[in-house]
Amino acid sequence: MASKSIRQATSGRERASEHEGFLRYRGYKWLKIALLISAVTLLIYAFNDVQPRPNGGSIYGYTTGTIGVGLILWLTWLGVRKRQITPGRWSLKSWTSAHVYLGLSLIVIASLHTGFDFGWNVHTLAYVLMLLVIGSGIFGIASYSLLPQELSANRGETTQVQMLDNLRMLDRQLNESAQPLDADGAAIVQMALHDDPFGGGLLARLTGRYPKCGTRAALAAVRAHAGRKEGEGDPLDHVEVLLERKRSALSRIRKHLRLKALLEVWLYVHVPLTFALIAALFVHIVSVFYYW
Amino acid sequence: MSFIVRTVARTADGRDIVRPKTFDKAELTVGRSPSSDIHLADLAVTLTHAVVRTAPGGYVEVVATAGLPFVVNGKQSEHERFSASQGADVRIGSHSLSFEAGDGDDKGAVIITVERVGAISNASEEKEEAHVFSLASTLPGKRVLAWSLALLVLAIFLIWPLASIHTVPTDQTRKVAFHADELWTSGKLSQVHKNLENNCQACHVKAGEAVRDSACVACHTKVHDHADPQKLAAAKGSPGFVMATKQLVGGVFGIQPGRCVECHTEHQGATRMPVTDERFCTNCHSDMSKRITTALKDTSDFGKHHPQFEPMLRLAAADGAPMLRRVSLDANAKEDNGLKFPHDLHLSTTNGVAQMAKTLGKGEGYGAPLECSNCHMRDASGSSFTTVKMETACGACHSLAFDQVGGTIRTLRHGDPAQVIADIRAFYRAGAPRNIAYQGMERRRPGDFASSGQRINFAQTSAMHIGNADDAIRAVFSKGGACYDCHSVRATGNPTTPFAVAPVSLTRRYLVKGWFDHAAHDTESCTSCHSVKGSHYAADVNLPKLAKCQECHGGQDAHKEVPSSCAMCHDYHRTGFAPLMVRDNRARGKALEHIKEKALTEAGGGV
Questions:
Q1: Where are the domains of chain B?
Q2: pLDDT single digits (tens) B564-585
Q3: Which of B181, B187, B200 minimises the CB distance to A119?
Q4: Was domain B2-116 assigned CATH 3.40.50.80?
Q5: ipTM score of the complex?
Q6: Is the pTM of this model over 0.90?
Q7: Alpha carbon B328 to chain centroid, angstroms
Q8: Which are the contacts of B318, defined by CB distance < 8 A and separation ≥ 6?
Q9: Which of A68, A234, B42, B120 has the lowest tally of Cβ within 10 angstroms?
């Protein structure tokens, strides 16, 4: 009991406020650095009169471009670095904090590198890919800071395995209680049993909408079944109760899946587009010097 | 033959429990009904799904009874017979019934092993928790996505253009169509180079080599240098730190300073070629005299620092021979065009000239006191004026008529003194001058004197009433005579052509180093710039001074009515044509509108 109370005390609100996440690492050290870099870049841009109009080929353009490429490659390196968790000044937390804020400052640096000279070409492609990568990163941070509470609230005290086991138990009960049913009744229950709780694809995961849900269809079919008898031990009555329970279990799982999907999906944009971005950057640099 | 049904059940910890049951029957029922011999608690199975029976010759027969098929050795069927000794694998719903012949104690019996092979529900199937609960189960892996996207980008944006560059011909046979290397463009080309949009290699000749002047000169064969390249380099002076660094870095990559593209930047959008920025001129010209010996004066801004205009004037040298020299308007510039012409007299609104013009009337193109446009005519370009011609501009008043034969008026030939003298002599040789009072029968009416017929009479009476030819010739070339009024006349001492007229040379263009467009100034009146109303001598150079222009024009970035960069009047590659900027009619909204309006009117569509 004693150990439990200590754990409760340390996992309470006070403990949470002492925790320093990567966003507020060292009093927003990297946010300040990123803001400083952006301000300096902006200031130089404002007073640098490039003729006939600002472009990536000016001295300023080459400078911001080089800084931008260096930053992008370094930011990408987090994918390697995150697998080595170390403490101290160059801790992973510090690294992640820098990744976030320097990544955001890239919006300023790269936009000014373009000189707002856009077109249907590989150069603008690289820029757009970069913005998508940064945008997905912002989405990731937002979901990491908002969704876990919701996820936890939805899950209650159960684990994923427990959720699945609960579903399996309901399926067994459904299977048993459907044994006396004729072929039609059995087919209805089969709809619920054959339904893949994890099916439905990306869209269903993200929206939490499963229009082809077998359990819901089975429930509707059972309720509309012509052979229902009033009272007196109709096996369909029990089936209906079980289907209702399965539906509610499924909806909790699916909310869980939706929240998890929202937590994960940004990385499916962030990581692949980063590599597409690096490829586009490579072509951007090659083409600029090929057709100098 | 008997059946032994061995039902296999699996415990939670994975152990199999086999429950054998022997049936001494020739036929067994299979179904979900609890009364079935082989009871399959499987919702995919109907209450009475099939029967299993023995058949003669050691065969076993499986027959569906509810019309729903089953699977025998992977083949769907409703009626199947097989040899008991060979056995078979029958699937009904999620259950497997494997038939085999018994041996040992069970010899002669058919053993049916019944086992559930499918999970009762999808959720009950084996699932890897970490996988199914994550998005990884619905999407391809991040690594796969990353590689495919990166390779896709490389294929479309690198391989395709490179392939296009190395396969598509660059000569005449090249098709005007999209070529993949256009994916590399950094912006649209200017309007004049639009036709090169599909042909990157026209300018980007060699891979990795910055555009060279040779690519420009390939088409622009007639553009000349601004000045001797060595003198240009000297005029530029030492570059600043930034410029020096740029040149140093450029030098490493073989980029020479002073390339065409330094000023003529391309890929700035489908606009007109941008007007050269003022700084490209003032870089050198603001203090060039410190660096090189030059006749050119320093200038840095039209509004603030521009030398006074120096028109090219025709002057008389010490020996009287004509010479051309540029003289500053500040130096009381006078020119020697060989003419006597008081502008003030002709532009008065009250004097005899004005009265004469009024009396000539609209029919003759007058009818009001003289205006500039009575004598000065625009040339075809609209930007300048044709030289004033005596016959059209002066002849209406300053008549050279001296005789009338029938209805035809004879005039002295302008511009040819020898001919004039000859004509007068011929006139006298033919007979005595006729007295005006006795010529013709018509009555003279008041106010009639200005008509052409009367003017002849007037001229005759004023000049030709003299008794002999020599006197008449002398009168014409002397004060009060037709020639002397406007021209400098000198006696030659030669009896055949006793008088000579100083040659007249009117200047068509005063400012030869710059450009001035009168059409662009149509919103102004002539006299708002040219102060001719007070000019009493033809020698007066009635050009407006710099300060006059500066009333409206300032430097490129000036807050004046017309901000004017150098390029408005000067061209870097000067030709006989107007500067590019003027030709483009840019930065001159008012003038542009005016020209459009004029064009419309001339085309008959104007209001």
A1: 2-116, 401-501
A2: 888 888 888 877 777 777 766 5
A3: B187
A4: no
A5: 0.86
A6: no
A7: 38
A8: none
A9: A234
